[in-house]
Amino acid sequence: MHDKWLEDKGIKHKNFAVVTWSNWDCRVMLESECRFKRIRKPPYFNRWINLKVPFQEVYGGVRCNLKDAVQLAGLTWEGRAHCGLDDARNTARLLALLMHRGFKFSITNSLVWQQPAPQAITCQPSPSPDRSPDLTLLQQHKAKEMLGPHLHAHPYAGKAAGQVCFCGAPSRPNTVRKPGPMQGRHFYGCGNWTVTRRAICTFFAWAS
To answer: Which residues form a coiled coil (predicted)?
Structure first.
């Protein structure tokens, strides 16, 4: 269905990129859903632009969630937070605003790389931006800590227990914390995962 939409829009055979807010969607959620439902995942989902990276580049390293980012950019949040469709629409609006101001984007993450590293992002402000952020509000948000990772260790012994990840290390038990239908489910991921480095490989298996 998605391929058909890309074909109808004349996009499929052009140079395009998937845009997300954070790496969770493409690195973990989409990967696990396609495996669970035995759906072939198109290869263009293996690389993406994490809009957090250019947003932080533009707004001086501000770390915040999607709703705060939309509002800091001078836009009004539309819909319900954590609703997949509403989140996607607001992400697109934020992307369009940055593009309108002349910022240039490049791929920030990929499943092909063993250790994803953001590429340099060049930006060029437009002659007359239609909105400017509230600097006082931005400075306040600079002090905010980034939301904790959506994963945490959990001693759950499921059928995947004892497996090794693609790094060759014992897989690490975790629990889905992100709000949604999978919240609370236990799974095993990269054994070398740490808070600062995150996962090195893409190993994933539901615990049950």
So the answer is: none
Burial of 54 (0-12, 13-18, 19+ CB in 10 A): buried
Place of tokens 């939409």: 5
- Locate 42 and state its tokens: 């198109």
Rg of the chain on CA atoms, in Å? 18
- Please answer whether residues 78 and 89 qualify as being in contact, where contact means their C-beta atoms are separated by less than 8 angstroms: yes
Phi-psi domain of 61 (left: phi exceeds 0; alpha: psi -120 through 50; beta: other): left
97-101, 114-118, 169-173, 195-199: segment of lowest average pLDDT:
114-118
Please, which residues have CB within 8 angstroms of residue 138's CB and are 6 or more apart in sequence? 59, 60, 62, 72
What pTM does this model have? 0.55
Q: Is 107 exposed, middle or buried (0-12, 13-18, 19+ CB in 10 A)?
A: middle
| CATH code linked to domain 2-142 | 3.30.420.10
> pLDDT tens-digit profile of 58-114?
988 888 999 999 999 999 999 998 898 999 999 999 999 999 988 889 888 888 644
Q: Where are the domains of the chain?
A: 2-142, 148-208
Across the chain, the runs of DSSP E, i.e. the strands, are 18-20, 47-50, 109-110, 151-153, 172-176, 186-189, 204-206
Q: Which of 66-70, 148-152, 178-182, 188-192 has the lowest mean pLDDT?
A: 148-152
d(CA 12, CA 29): 23
Contact criterion met (CB below 8 Å) for 192 and 170: no
